[in-house]
Each structure stands twice: as structure tokens, then as C-alpha cells.
Input
Amino acid sequence: MDELATLFMNIISLVGLKMDEVAALNYFIAEQTIKAEHNAKFLKERLGLDVTELEVDGVLQVQRALVSTYISKETEKVGG
Output
């Protein structure tokens, strides 16, 4: 994950994206991932969450929950 993040940062720097452009790109990636058919189905079946009609705030809330879950799992791995 760290290598991928570094690659993205290198591309962002190379292209010269501004903070708002990076934020928009991050949102686009999150929205496309959350609303992908297999992920939307998973979220609907497991959490009862219909993500197909989410607007910006809804997508960001789902992303926030996913990031929190990821951080918790990674912290447990290193014994935190």
C-alpha cells in the first residue's frame, strides 16, 4: 500500500495537481469504487446500505467508515 501511495504522490507531483484537484480525484476514485456493482451489492447485503443514490456527503461518510476500518485493522496487525 505504501508503494502504491508513493507512486500516486509521484504522479500527482509530476502532473502538478492542486489540492482541490487531488481532493476531486480522491472523491472520484472513492465514488467509483463504492458504487461498483460488486461493492454496491456487498454494502446492500451486509449493511442494508443502498449506495447507488449517494451524493457527495454520503460517499464521503462511507469512505470515512472504510478508512476507519482499514486503520483499525492495520493497527491491530502491528500490535497497537
Observations:
- The radius of gyration is 15 Å.
- Helices lie at 2-15, 19-35, 37-47, 56-77.
- The chain has a mean pLDDT of 95.
